[in-house]
Amino acid sequence: MKRKIDPTLLELWLGILAYGAVFEAALLFFSRKPAHSIGLWIGVFLAVAGAFHMWWSLDRGLDLPEKEAVKSMSAQNIIRYAVLVAALGALMYTDFADPIFAFCGYMGMKVSAYLNPLIHRIRAGKDKQEISDGTAL
Question: Per the structure, how many domains does the chain have?
Answer without folding.
Answer: 1
